[in-house]
Amino acid sequence: MSTRSGDESGNAGGFSEQERSAMKERAAELRTEVERGRGNKRAAEELDVLSKIQEMEAADRAVAERVHAIVTANAPGLAPKLWYGQPAYARKGKVVCFFRSGSADKERYSTFGFTPEADLDDDSGLWPTSFAVSGLGEETEKAIAALVRKAVGRHRPGSEHSIRPGRK
To answer: CA within 20 to 30 Å of 66's CA: 72, 93, 132, 135, which one?
Structure first.
């Protein structure tokens, strides 16, 4: 139960309409996963992602299509799936990276980000986990490709989690 007293829009539960909508989408995604079983799950989930991308406004759609192509080309082991109603890419069911539409989030930019499942940890103890994206040029595409490769490159088969500097 939320202990928040509400927000400026009068939401007694404390969550914004946008937050409630994202939670409802995630619940629906989980129900769909259970209903599909194991059969054609990967193909169906990729179709869900491509359909979601097609629903986006033109500027976000163009970026999301390129991000999808970059991720699938550079990390073929990641499976596309929806995560909180937006495109994401998972390893063994756990999301590694994701794209959030700026227009869907009512932001002036979209976001490409990584979860703790991504092997981006840096020995310095500081590394970025998400990036604002308003367009993709050649250099930006190369940077995303390098980050995606790094995110999946240090994963060791057979281990539940990668070995990361500074972690036990």
So the answer is: 93
